[in-house]
Known about the structure:
By secondary structure, this protein is an alpha/beta fold. It has one domain: Alpha-Beta Barrel (TIM Barrel), CATH 3.20.20. The protein has 16 helices and ten strands. The strands form three sheets. It has a four-stranded parallel beta sheet. A three-stranded parallel beta sheet has the order 9-1-10, covered by helices on one side. α3 runs antiparallel to α12. The longest helix has 18 residues, at 231-248. It is globular. The structure holds ligand V47 and iron/sulfur cluster. The site of ligand V47 has 21 residues, from β6, β7 and α15. Ligand V47 is lined by residues 80-82, 180-183, 185, 220, 222, 224, 255, 257, 259-260, 264, 297, 300, 326-327, 330.
Amino acid sequence: MHLFQSDYFATLGLADIRDKVEAHERLSFDDGVRLFRCPEPLAVGALAHRVRSRLHGDKTFYVVNRHVNYTNICVNGCVFCAYQREEGQSGGFVLTRDDVLTKLAAAALPPREVHIVGGCHPKLGLTYFEDILSAVHERYPDAVLKCFTAVEIAHFARLEGIAAREVLTRLKAAGLGMLAGGGAEIFAPEVRERLCPRKATADEWLSIHEEAHGLGLKTNATMLFGHIETIDDRVDHLVRLRESQDRGGGYTCFIPLPFLTKNSRLTIDNPLTGLEELKTIAVSRLLLDNIPHIKAYWVMLGVKQAQAALKFGADDFDGTVIEEKIGHEAGATSEQGLSRSELTDMIRGCGCTPVERDGFFNEV
Length: 364
Ligand code: V47
Ligand code: SF4
């Protein structure tokens, strides 16, 4: 008998959720909490894999991309962040436009996606970013420029004394194609207050993404989990994202980010288990019924866990990356970058079909 017709889900108290998944029905907040509380991660994974297979078959997407972090100097000082430096502190850096171009030129393959993000620097004005975007766009006209988080956009707007919408409009004119998904962390206000009190609020983060969608920009979204948040906080985060997507439809991909503890000022009592990571990816797939892609970000997960995630709802392996600083400062033990053949071999090794994509998830 097929697993979905068997008593397996009923014995775990998940028969009604299984039925909703089979009927393509939206899951409720309470369903999300029950999935997180289910003692059997494999059952949650099987449900998520069902949805992933329905959406994407055995395809797993990857992209030839390059990450560039333009500065690690940041006024926000989030308690979990191992990457940030204060202005004047040793180890702080700011790249010039030419540094950015040099880093991009050093990649073995021309990128189809350029991911540029950084700290909230107290002095870098909008012209610095327009200058970088125009230069990168001119050099790589076919690459999707997926740059800046909503937190950076809010910061640029505050520094310049202009509306976030104007910042987005100017950056779009300079070549911006998408916003990166970082900075969402956890939306629940009491957790956000403890983790990152100086950062844009959840409402600001969501409204900047919706402004971007209104301007025709796509965006990604993240959730940082495995620190001081509760199960309810994770479900709240996912449901708020789903509601935001209902309003505008511009989110392309969701990236669940497990908290890496090294060099962080945040100490936690119960570090995440590998199974808890996979279950969180699976619940994300199940609750976010209106976001097409779930990323197994191998940098934070590690490559083997990212492979496992492909059977727990994820369909994107991200990319070549080349040089990553945020996760590696926090103790990520993954490689700095992967070649195209390493990516495709890893995807095939899981029984999936590798599909190269651009930044917007168009197949190439
Ligand atoms: O916003 C910071 C997170 C994010 C830690 O949009 C940490 O396609 C784990 O958002 N442990 C930046 N995570 C990375 C990010 C991202 C990555 C890849 C693709 C995309 C995309 C977005 O990293 C930050 C924060 O949430 N982070 N410190 C840490 N110790
Ligand atoms: Fe700054 Fe981002 Fe680090 Fe927070 S997570 S301190 S905003 S670089």
